[in-house]
Amino acid sequence: xxxxxxxxxxxxxxxxxxxxxxxxxxxxxxxxxxxxxxxxxxxxxxxxxxxxxxxxxxxxxxxxxxxxxxxxxxxxxxxxxxxxxxxxxxxxxxxxxxxxxxxxxxxxxxxxxxxxxxxxxxxxxxxxxxxxxxx
Length: 135
Hints:
Structural class: alpha+beta
Low-confidence stretches: none
Strand content: 15-25%
Mean pLDDT: 85
Radius of gyration: 17 Å
Number of strands: 6
Largest sheet: 4 strands, mixed
Distance between the termini: 33 Å
């Protein structure tokens, strides 16, 4: 499980640009608050090798799934949420985790961490309100 902004990152697949080469269907971890994206640690080496070779060959696009046969369920087994889940469920899960961590931060008397978690909770609460208002 990877953490960012005080709670867990979501598992997803996406496209990354490596110089002039776009690599599609890369397993990623995504922070729903600050939007930080990183290649999932289980395929990071494979991504770097594929991206370098594709760039060296002058390919403009390459599909990660065509070259790396990792099981998606195995890759994302340690993430709390996936982008493909119901957005409201994901946001509520993120809020619940942040509240649990806030209790620990208060117990540890870590003011900086408490501030980060409160900012994350504010962002996630706003997102939950927007999702609840959608028809």
